[in-house]
Design brief:
This protein is mainly alpha-helical. It has 15 helices and five strands. A three-stranded antiparallel beta sheet has the order 1-2-3. A two-stranded antiparallel ribbon has the order 4-5. A hairpin with a 5-residue loop joins strand 2 and strand 3. Helix 8 packs antiparallel against helix 10.
Length: 304
């Protein structure tokens, strides 16, 4: 019997998308440490022996340490995922599983820390990229254009293949959360940035070399374009570096937040939900990061 079929933890992780595996492994490692298993290898822990009161204690510790409710939910869901696999393997009874599922994460919400990136700021980002004579200038403009223009997640942008882009239809086929195939649409200006980057990349190929199958390459010092796919961490670095150049702290997810906020502003919440591919419309509403001035203006309309 292989490791993945005899261990509920590894079986749970193998069911996740590659982009989620590292995150949930980190969460489970931290949970294990907090549960008193810091001296035991993660795969060697007898997860099926975990009791509901231990998970309740974990939630309490996370609350004391100031963790947000969403983060608490992430920990609880990770443990539930492992216990589901333990039940499937007949390591625990259904009664035990139901008791574990009954443990709730901490209640409450937190105000969004996201930023709404206005069109003027995006233009400034495009300008600093255009002023960069290195290949990074073209690549980063394309990355920002696709993220902001389509509302794509950073994990989707690093995994998308060149064959999944239809420039004529302005569509991009991605594999989203839950291993779902989705169609994103991007504006012409964003795809023009992507085409400019791809044309430059092709111009650097030696005679007889084939173009890469993915969109964005890792670029080493000395402006050397590698044949390696860019990583999610690199997307974070691009957002941070280009944001610093225009005097704003930017996180990669701010591009998606801004895309959804813009659609809500100019159309409505239901259209934003469809373009964001959210199952629950409340999730879409949570992405609305319009600033306080806009909210004040809305309230001022009720002045006597």
């Amino acid at each position: 019997m292989t490791e993945s079929t005899r261990n509920p933890l590894t079986l749970y992780l193998t069911r996740l998308a590659p982009s989620s595996q590292l995150t949930m492994r980190y969460v489970l490692q931290d949970a294990a440490d907090r549960l008193g298993f810091e001296d035991i290898n993660l795969e060697d822990i007898d997860w099926h022996l975990l009791q509901p009161e231990q998970v309740m204690a974990l939630v309490a510790v996370l609350r004391e340490d100031g963790y947000a409710p969403n983060t608490s939910s992430l920990y609880v869901n990770a443990v539930r995922g492992v216990m589901n696999e333990a039940w499937r393997m007949s390591l625990i009874t259904q009664d035990h599983l139901l008791k574990m599922r009954s443990v709730k994460a901490m209640a409450g919400t937190r105000l969004s820390q996201g930023r709404n990136l206005r069109r003027t700021l995006i233009r400034e980002l495009m300008d600093v990229c255009a002023a960069d004579p290195r290949p990074q200038g073209l690549r980063d403009a394309a990355v920002i254009g696709i993220l902001y223009g389509s509302g794509m997640r950073k994990s989707e942008s690093v995994n998308i293949e060149l064959s999944q882009v239809d420039f004529q239809e302005r569509s991009l086929q991605v594999t989203g959360k839950g291993n779902k195939q989705l169609i994103k649409y991007a504006p012409a200006w964003a795809l023009a940035k992507l085409e400019a980057w791809l044309a430059f990349r092709r111009s650097q190929l030696k005679e007889g070399e084939q173009d890469d199958t993915f969109l964005f390459n890792r670029i080493r010092r000395g402006s050397h374009i590698t044949r390696e796919r860019i990583t999610k961490h690199a997307i974070y670095y691009i957002a941070r570096q280009r944001g610093e150049q225009v005097g704003v702290k930017i996180m990669p997810h701010d591009f998606r937040r801004s895309f959804i906020t813009r659609v809500i502003e100019e159309y409505d919440l239901s259209i934003a939900q469809k373009l964001a591919h959210h199952t629950n419309i409340q999730t879409t509403a949570n992405y609305d990061v319009r600033d306080d001035n806009e909210r004040r203006r809305a309230v001022d309309r009720f002045d006597l």
